[in-house]
Amino acid sequence: MMNALILGNNKINAEAARVLAESGVGAEVLTDVSEILKFSGEPGGYTVVTQDGTARFTSVIVTEPPRYAAVEADGGTSVCLADEAETERLFDPKRRDKILILLDFAEETPEYLAAKAVRLAARLAKDKKDVVFLSKTVKSGYGDGELCDREARNAGVQFVKYEKASVRYDAGEDIFCVEANDGVFEISLRSPFLVTAGFEESGQLKRIAKKLRVRGSTKDGINDDRFFLYSAFTLRRGIYYLNPALTAGDEKQRVKEALQPLMEDMASIGADGYVREIIRGMEIPEVDPNKCAFCYSCYRACPHGALEPDGKASAMKVIEPLCQACAICEAICPAQAISRTGGGPAPAGGGKCKIYLCENGAAEAFDEILPSLGDRGRLIDSVRISCGGSVGAELLTGDFKDYETVIVACCVEDACRHMDGDKRACKQTGRVANLLNKAGLGGKHAHVIHTSLAMKDVMKEQLTHILEESN
Amino acid sequence: MIVAEQKPIDELIRSLEGFKKIVIASCGTCVTVCMSGGEKEALAVQGLLEANAKEKGQDISVSVVDLKRQCDDEFIDDLEAELLDGDVVLSMACGVGVQFLAGKYADKVVLPGLNTTFYGAAKELGYWTELCAGCGNCLLERTGGICPIARCSKSIFNGPCGGSQNAKCEIDSEIDCAWQLIYDKLTAMGRLDTLLEIHEIRDWSTSRDGGPRHLRKDDVNLDDAGK
């Protein structure tokens, strides 16, 4: 019997519980995360201890909405996009002033708020308002994004892409002055109406993320903006983030739509394919309790929250259904206590250059470009790894006995499905490059290549360049 | 725990110049946890030393011995054969471990691989901060659990000094003013009146000023003659 804990203070909780019940999923609602005294377990059996007792849930659905606060400048307060009552006041027919919508100001605006902003801009323009829409990036990847953009443009919204902007509030005139620069031109805009996405005040959401050990692209935040995952999935399996603002339509419809992929995934929990499908044949690491220093480094580093302390053994252990075999824990573990039973680097093949290939994109890209490298290709020994983040300095330094050049090919920035594997690869390689220099091994090189299946040509160019340089 | 960082690799290479058979001894406790002297770090040094020797055309051998702890005889005795099977031991332990090994084997060259830095804790993954100065006379009950000796740059007892600005220290804007932290913590606990108590001039003989320190627990160590 599937059941879910709906966690967060959101008016859609009752509707979500109703939709789940319709599909035979029992649901309980908890609005305040501080009531959870202990949270443990794995998908299919998360244990939640509160003062009322212990309950088990097959999954957890977080509904706490991100909270955005208005931007304040010199005493003036902007209209916050997330505040619907405030944005409705912009339609006041008596006010004919220009309306400035400023995104990516205090911080990068999340996609669902950008979508909201474009829709608002289109509605305002159709209502004969003069709307200027300023943003640093164009986000139209969501559902009907391009359609919304076109609609807003046709309605007469002026779009401005900027690089830098500053906001000043003139209290005497009750007016905001926005100075924006696109790298070449400066523009100055003045209006009593400044609409911003504001900045995230995610105190409660952060507390939930910490309690459930969910990692996000922002520190301690919940992941809902990574393009390679469906937006409702967090990095910890069986824990979802439901944000109906991501979809269009009326609220009931939105809740139902947002829950659909979650329920499909929930149905697969416990099925055999759940683990293997995702990790693509990579081995799940094991912790040797005799070597484990019980230092919690792996626990802190694991992007999937897949390690937990085993008090009896005084060591960490891997929660298999949560593990995605990225092996970042293996690279982090200072005691060499974590290793995979089967995998691991292949033996030396006699080339001059060794390349570690992240299986998320680099490996396939390399396979495709290898024939076109010709004779140079024979100089390269390749090893498939689960993630660029699984490569530690000790592994790379060990390679320099046999190789002149060692390359780690990992994902491009923000594309790592283990969150920060590309950054870890970069840092480890950088550290090794530095050590090589200091050790008087200037002829040996450690490189990192950021790549993906779509970047084969770039990867080929980089590889050719590196091989030429090391000759 | 004891926090340490690895010595620069060029310094290690210089200090190991001339040795043909090098044994690197890692230590499985504090320095493993602070990622400076555990087996993994020892392997990284091994890799670099070997590559460096190969580059120079030198014939050396480098092995790694993973000791659980370098400050207890029994752990060392278990791996003594491997440990002594070289011309030199590069100890990747804190200063305690290096001295323990050097003292245990009178004729053995034991070199330090780390710089021992402080007593501290991991604030987050990969970031350690100093919390204790090991002064031998703890006063944390009077300062809200924040040590002015270890965490105030001037180690002052009745702070803050005039250099505290916006809760930061004048020597580095990244360092929190310990006395601001003490004030905030005592306020939060409702024990601000603790600050009204004047700290007497301190007896530093429990600290380094009293010379090397010893501790004997009579109920465990029954050697009365050793007193």
Oligomer: heterodimer
Strand fraction of chain B: 15-25%
Say what the CATH topology of the largest domain in chain B is.
Rossmann fold
Envelope shape of chain B = globular
Strand fraction of chain A: 25-35%
Name the biggest interface.
Answer: A-B, 28 and 30 residues
CATH class of the largest domain in chain B: Alpha Beta
E-strand count of chain B: 9
Structural class of chain B: alpha/beta
Mean pLDDT of chain A: 86
Strand count, sense and barrel status of the largest sheet of chain A are: 5 strands, parallel
CATH architecture of the largest domain in chain B: 3-Layer(aba) Sandwich
What's the N-to-C terminus distance of chain B? 29 Å
Report the radius of gyration of chain A as a whole number of Å.
26 Å
- Biggest sheet: strand arrangement of chain A: 10-17-11-12-13
Biggest sheet record of chain B: 4 strands, parallel
CATH superfamily of the largest domain in chain B: Response regulator
The helix content of chain B is: 25-40%
Low-confidence stretches of chain B: none
